[in-house]
Design brief:
It comes from Candidatus Methylopumilus planktonicus. Pfam families: ROK. InterPro entries: ATPase_NBD, ROK, ROK_cs. Belongs to the ROK (NagC/XylR) family. One of its GO terms (molecular function) is N-acylmannosamine kinase activity. A 5-stranded mixed β-sheet has the order 3-2-1-4-7, sandwiched between helices. It has a 5-stranded mixed β-sheet with strand order 10-9-8-11-12. The protein is globular and about 55 Å long. The protein has 2 domains: 5-110, ATPase, nucleotide binding domain (Nucleotidyltransferase, domain 5, 2-Layer Sandwich); 124-280, Nucleotidyltransferase, domain 5 (2-Layer Sandwich). It has helices spanning 41-58, 94-102, 111-122, 181-185, 187-198, 204-208, 215-239, 259-265, 286-293; strands at 5-11, 15-21, 27-34, 64-70, 73-74, 81-82, 107-110, 130-136, 140-146, 149-150, 243-247, 277-279. It starts with a strand and ends in a 7-residue tail after the last helix. Strand 2 and strand 3 form a beta hairpin. Helix 3 packs across helix 9, helix 5 (187-198) runs antiparallel to helix 7 and helix 7 (215-239) crosses helix 8. The chain has 300 residues and is an alpha/beta fold. It is built from 9 helices and 12 strands.
Length: 300
């Protein structure tokens, strides 16, 4: 049976959001709650259930597909969630638990893949054959879309550039490695480095707005651009995507599109680097829109 509505749930470390798309891909309902992961997995499931019930009311319980975007992915071997930075959800049978609680079939996909799909079909990547979507928020993730479909890979890890090691002597990551991209250029990683190097507690936004005369912060900023350049150049050298779309809170930092891109281009294995590296168009709606779209089976 064809669904006239597509419900998407975006499960983030800070917030959980639900949105309903109609048959024309227009958002007809949208709401969010805090994740409050410190209260545990059962609390998170209750938050999801509450949002889902409100979405159902908005469409009068009509036929719908249901997709959920989450950090990490479902293991094809164990069917348990793995690699999530919402640690209390790792090693849980997320799909079966949620299907029992919501009493509906659900498609689960990595949150960065959801972001990439939404931007590829409806946002900054529309019209490009291949799109790499980057999330630089609390964590750092990525997703690959070819010809309008998410590339998952046989291990469900395609696009996980946040856990590409760029400095083996770097900070330890929850994944078990040292010096992952996420530890350098995510918001959380950047804030930890600022604290360790300067003793200051600064948000990523305040950091980029800090006075340029502070030498310690200036050095961290230069290193940030260099790490961003190395990480993204490595990715482009391997995939050579038609476009890279940046998302997450750090994608709002204007200097990424000048100093950051200069660092990327200086490291690409080509004498005339030309990969468009652009800001997302859908803002913080991209993840939840992508979650709604995945119910259509847009993976490969």
């Amino acid at each position: 049976m064809t669904s006239n509505y597509h419900i998407g749930i975006d499960l983030g470390g800070t917030k959980i959001e639900v949105a309903v798309l109609d048959s024309q891909d227009k958002i007809v309902f949208r709401e969010r709650l805090l994740t409050e992961a410190h209260l545990g997995s059962e609390h998170i499931f209750n938050q999801i259930h509450s949002l889902y019930k409100k979405a159902l009311i908005s469409i009068q319980n009509k036929t719908h597909s249901l997709g959920l975007g989450t950090p990490g992915s479902i293991s094809k071997k164990t069917h348990l969630l793995k690699n999530s930075n919402t640690l209390c959800l790792n090693s849980l049978p997320l799909q079966s638990l949620l299907e029992d609680k919501l009493v509906h079939d659900i498609v689960i996909e990595n949150d960065a893949n959801c972001f990439a799909l939404a931007e590829a079909l409806m946002g900054a990547g529309k019209g490009y054959p291949s799109v790499f979507g980057v999330i630089m928020g609390t964590g750092c993730g990525g997703g690959i879309v070819f010809d309008g479909k998410i590339r998952q890979g046989p291990q469900n890890i395609a696009g996980e550039w946040g856990h590409m090691v760029i400095d083996p002597q770097g900070y330890p990551c929850y994944c078990g490695a040292n010096g992952c991209v996420e530890s350098f250029i995510s918001g959380g990683g950047l804030e930890k480095r600022i604290q360790d190097k300067t003793g200051k507690t600064l948000s990523a936004i305040d950091f980029f707005n800090a006075p340029s005369k502070d030498e310690a912060l200036k050095n961290i900023k230069q290193d940030f651009y260099a790490r961003f350049g190395q990480a993204l150049a490595n990715l482009i050298n391997i995939l050579d995507p038609d476009i890279v779309v940046l998302g997450g809170g750090l994608s709002n930092e204007k200097s990424l599109y000048k100093e950051g891109i200069d660092e990327v281009y200086s490291r690409i294995f080509n004498d005339t680097p030309s990969t468009p590296i652009v800001k997302n168009m859908l803002g913080d709606s991209a993840g939840v829109i992508g979650a709604a779209l995945i119910g259509r089976g847009l993976t490969q």
